[in-house]
Amino acid sequence: MHKSFLDTAGFLNYSLIDDYKILELNTQSVVVFLLARESVVNRLVNSISTRDCLLCSLRGSLKAGPGLLQGKYHITTYSDSILPGHNLIFDSLHHRRKYIERVRDMLLLADEYRDSFVMCDGINYPDKEKRHFYCHLLDKEYIPLFDFLSEGECFSTLLAGSAGDIFLKKQNLKSSIVLRSKDKNWLFDVYLEIEKVLGRSYSLSKYPHVNFIVQKEADFYFLVIYPRVVYKPLEFYDNSENRINIVPGVFEMAGVFITNSESSYNNCNIDSINSIYEQISYSFTNLKKLLMPLISDISNPKIF
């Protein structure tokens, strides 16, 4: 993080500041928000798998997605979000659609929304289930989440090629894979191969759990992948007063924790955040070992 969240002009929706408490852990580039009520985003997303899906009821009053995605998606803006410029893009229909299509769609969204991060919580349900896929848009200017290519605690260039580059980064106990290319088809193909390394099963319609962020900067697309070892940390299952009722998603992996539980908020500190990141993330060393055979294949033009 380049500077304090609280010093970042325009970062907070000040008209709603009385409804929030803010804990900033500067040494970890983490900020924790305590909401006075459940967020609109939470209510919408939690309704997706129910008969009373709020996204289905909303789509008639919302604008369609941009450009090539106009028939697939709708977009909504949250006036009560602590993060100005926060939008949710979601499926126009509550239906089956293969998840892997969405990665390509997010690259198209990055073309349309160059001032935004396109952020996805990943997926943990099979293609056969009827759901709305959704992802977040967040204005870059409001949230200095990270510099994709800053060195952090560990940094390794796994591939520097004519078609694109692959980097491995560790920061605050989180390991991420950073893909950079001018060719979104190359990014898409490499992402598919990384999914296989992480446990993709086509026969079982099973996906590895990852969070990822897409952006376009000048002529380059960036795809940042946070592979997850587990979905929920032990702190989530703790029945004592030390419980942290937060299921980490893409915002949390980027350093923004949001909860409406005061006890969970009070239990957030450097040690507990470190513990959560360490449990849910691959180690830098293990992730590098997993990726090296793939890097060798990608480097060989006869194979890739």
Write the layout of secondary structure elements.
Blueprint: E1 20-25, E2 30-35, H1 40-46, H2 54-58, E3 63-64, E4 73-77, E5 87-91, H3 100-112, E6 116-120, E7 134-139, E8 154-160, E9 165-171, E10 174-181, H4 184-198, E11 210-217, E12 220-227, H5 234-237, H6 250-253, E13 256-259, H7 262-266, H8 270-280, H9 284-299
Parallel strand pairs: 2-13
Antiparallel strand pairs: 1-2, 3-4, 4-5, 5-7, 6-7, 6-11, 8-9, 9-10, 10-12, 11-12
Helix pairs in contact: 3-4, 4-9
Structure commentary:
The chain has helices at 40-46, 54-58, 100-112, 184-198, 234-237, 250-253, 262-266, 270-280, 284-299; strands at 20-25, 30-35, 63-64, 73-77, 87-91, 116-120, 134-139, 154-160, 165-171, 174-181, 210-217, 220-227, 256-259. It is of the alpha+beta class. Among the domains are: 39-145, 2-Layer Sandwich (HIT family, subunit A); 234-277, no CATH class. It has a 10-stranded antiparallel β-sheet. The protein has a 3-stranded mixed β-sheet with strand order 1-2-13. The longest helix has 16 residues, at 284-299. It is globular and about 55 Å long.
